[in-house]
Amino acid sequence: MPTTPTTPTEPARLLLVRHGETVWHAENRYAGVSDVALTDRGLRQAARLGQWAARRGVDAVACSPLGRTRATAQPAADLLGTPLEVVEELREVDFGWGEGRTIEEMAAEDAEAVRRFRADAETGAFPGSEPPSAAAARATAALRRLAVRHAGRTVLVVAHNTLLRIALCSMLGIPVGRYRLVLPRLDNAAVTEIEVAGGRTALRSLNVPALPAVPAGAEAAREAPAPYGTDLSA
Fold this sequence. Notes:
This protein is of the alpha/beta class and 234 residues long. The chain contains 9 helices and 7 strands, in the order βααβαβαααβααββαβ. The relative contact order is 0.19.
């Protein structure tokens, strides 16, 4: 007796975005789980992201529980008329000894600890910090749950620089301890697009600025990140 073929799960498009600029990030400090507010520039980045999301046809908006991601995601949710989905597992990595400090400050105190961290963030994780493998497990599980819940839809996911890089490495089969080497940074309010269906993840674009449809003048031009984003859909 012939069997009816099963239809594969329709992929969800997850638009992964690092939150807007904060005071600590402007000073290159590790914010981690510390709740640091957005700067005025970060608030403008959030507003532009909201406008971009409204044009992009986003269906849902999710974010981590920290204030800087909520403030970045809220303009998009307001323009789209959808509630924020706050996902606890998308919080930033706890940097332990590194919280609130610059890499230069840490190197001045313990250069060997910084050398180990730069060589392999998993085996050389800062004292008292969350290992990248643990962060990857919770973040990957959370993103896959979002993909199942929003199959066939587009979801804006506002989270954090380190957490998103670790999750991307994990979902794309890259050792998470190498996230700093493979993905040097994600810019504030820039978009990385992935498609997720079942256990499969496809990278569609990486670190692309969410720019307004019409240039907003010299101020917007000055705030645009240096070219780094790549659209992989062509």
